[in-house]
Structure formats: C-alpha cells, structure tokens
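Journal club side-thread
Mid-discussion, someone asked how the predicted structure for our own chain would compare to the paper's figures. Pasting it here so we can look after the session.
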Amino acid sequence: MVFSSFVFLFAFLPLVLLLYSCSPDKAKNAVLLAFSLLFYAWGEPLWIGVLLLNVAVGWMGGLLIERGRGRRMAKTAMVAALVFQVGVLVYFKYTGFLVQTLQHVLPFPVPFRDPGLPIGISFFTFHLISYLVDVYRGDAPALRSYSKLLLYISLFPQLVAGPIIRYADVQEQLSRRRITLEGFSTGIARFVVGLGKKVVLANTLADISTVFLDGDLGKLSLLGAWFGIVLFALQIYFDFSGYSDMAIGLGRMFGFHFNENFNYPYVSRSASEFWRRWNISVGRFFRDYVYIPLGGNRRNPAFNLFAVWFLTGLWHGASWNYVLWGVYFGVFIAMERSFLFRILSLLPNLASHIYFLAAVLIGWVFFYFESISRGLVYLRVMLGFASAPLANAELAIHLQNHLFLLPIAVIAATPLPAVLHRRLTARMRPGFARGLYANTLVPLACLAILTVSALLLVGKTYSPFFYFRF
C-alpha cells in the first residue's frame, strides 16, 4: 500500500483515524499497531514474518543488554543481535549482487535463487540497529513490551521508506503523546503538501525525464542530456521529500513529532552542505552509528569517511553504480575538507552554487544508470565529448509542451514558498485578514492540491515512491 493511492487516501487513513480517535487511551497503540501490520502486509503478506522475527530478536537483544549492563554480556548480546539484523539484510538484499559479482571472476557458475526483497527492509533494519545501540549506550531503556517495540518499528508512516527515526528521539512518545487541533491540522496540511509533491510534480517529471534518460542515447542532444538529468534531480527530490512530508504529517495526526528529513538541499553551495540537507535521517544514522564509532575525525578520518560513503552507496542499492555514486560523493567531500572549502569561500555565492549543481547532477547520472557503461555514454553527451547536437526537435517539443512545469518545480524546490507564507502570516495583524488567510485560504489551497492529486491518480497505474526500492 502506498500513501498516494485511493485505497490509502479514502479507506485506510479515514478508518484508522476514526478508530484511533474513538479508542480509549490504553487501546490507541493497539489500533496503530494493527493497522501498521495491515499496511505492511497489504500485497506482500509473506514478508511480515521477516519483520516479526527481526523485531523479536531485537526485543530479546535489548532485554539481554539491559540485564547485562556493565558486563561483557551486554556487548555480546548487542553484537549478536546486530549480526543477526545485518545478516538478514545482506541475505535478502545483497546475496544476489555478491553472486553476480562472483560470476565474473569464477570459472564455474554459482547456483542461486533470488529470495526476493521484503519492502522497507533497509529502513526497519536501521531502526532496529538504532534501538539496540541506543539501549547499549544507555541513551534509552530497553522496552519490556514486545508490542511496543513492534509499534516503533512497524509504525506505518515511516515503515517502508523512512525517514529513519532514532529510538531515543521517540521513546517517550510511544507511551505518552497528545493530539491537539493545531497539531492535527498542521499534520493534514503537511500530508497534503507531500501528496502534491509526489503526484503533481514527481510523477509528471518522471514521465518526461524517462524520455531522455531511457531513450536512444545516439539521438540525445547535449542540452537534452542536461534537461533529462535536471528533471530526474527534481523528480527524486519531490518523490522522497514528498514521502517524508507525508510521513511527518501522518505522525502529527497521531501525536508523534518526527524530525525534518529535507531542508531544501538544492540551495546548497557544496557537496558537504547538500548532505546536511538531503535525507538528513540517513546522514545522521551513518554519522552516529558508523562514522563516530569508527573514530570520527579523531582516528583514521579518511578511512572512516570512505567507509561511510561506500556503505551509503551500497545501502541505496545492490549494484556497483550505487557504490560508485557513494564513493563519488566521498571524494568530493574529502576534497572540500582538504582544500576546496578554502577556494569556494573566495568565490561569489553564485559560482560556488554552480559548482555544486554541476557536481550533484553528474552524481545523479551514476545513481540513475545501473548500467555503468550506459551512464558513461550519457555523461559523454552531457559533457560535450560525444558528436551530439546542441539541441534537437525532441527537446524543443518537450520544452514547449511543459513550459511552466520546470520553473514551478524549481521554485517549489527552494525555500521561497515557505518564506512567503511566513512573511504573509507575520505581517498580518491578528484579526479578520489573518483569520481569512489561515482558516480559509490555506485550507482551500490544501483542498485544491488534494483534488488535483486525486484527479491525476484516476486511471494511473501503480506508482510507488522511488525510495521503496531501498
């Protein structure tokens, strides 16, 4: 089940909100847990067994860590539980990749049957790692209740595509949370904005970008190559930030407060700044649970940096292009720390921003093309090393047919709309004008986004969020 579907929008969500609001406080977690498991099992009931088993091992591991605190038993329990979680992830997500890699170096075939990939396994595995490490470090107590840990892991707003919510950040909210009218209305608005990002912008951009990215590269023009990757860069931003907005909004509806996951990453002026703004929860996870434990900046910082970026790339997909993409950003960040920051600080903001955009767009080419050879051909066209025309009729037709889409998408990817909203609200004195804006115009705008999104979903085939593959 996906958020941008009629089943979720007009059946699942209204029903869970109704039953949750009518239930006594003691039963609210049970309602959320039941619907979260239904949400996960919808369409793929087989994989719910993997989820339940992983949570059971994490739950027992947490209890053993708590019982053995201060002794070797705690560390042994943590390591054993982590090995199990990572082992399950590697088996389902990376075994096929490892076998395919071995096939290229071994003189004999390696028999293998793909076990399939449980949806969201990367995310619920990372949540369990967060739980176990936070308990071991003493940042949060172990949960005595299996069902409460299962709720934290399976909570449907963040179950299948994040954002990654640290256990220490929500431990109290699992037991005590309060829903207010303001928080609920804020949650609805945030959810609808995310829905618009996904359905109106991301899906539309995806339909156009594939014309350039998946077409005949021999007929691709130089500007067409840049146009295609710019469309993809915007598509993946609106797709994943849209999902994060919807997850944060859904959390608010049920009294949870999740941290922000995107902070207008395309306004950055360096690769380092981009990764402080893009998919913030994943960046924090690798920082807190990989980079710092390895030694951070104190011991072997270069090795630690590349280990993090190798794993970041591999986490995004079981393919060498993702590893290449991760190492690519690792190299840029290492260069920025070494000398590029000093150079960029001397340049005008526009120049450093152009540097960043060129770097990130080239990076998206590595990310998009699982075939590295095809990606390199695309890069040759982009960088002018192929005998491709500057522009062609195909590009002109798409620019003419979508004249307003790209400017609207670019503006929507900047803080400008949010800044205008805040300034309008701040300048209006309490009274009729502010009430009209906040209580009438904003809800009408949300209703318009919901209506347009619903109309675009009519007759639309299944369109999962891009990050479901991770």
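Post-session note: The mean pLDDT is 90.
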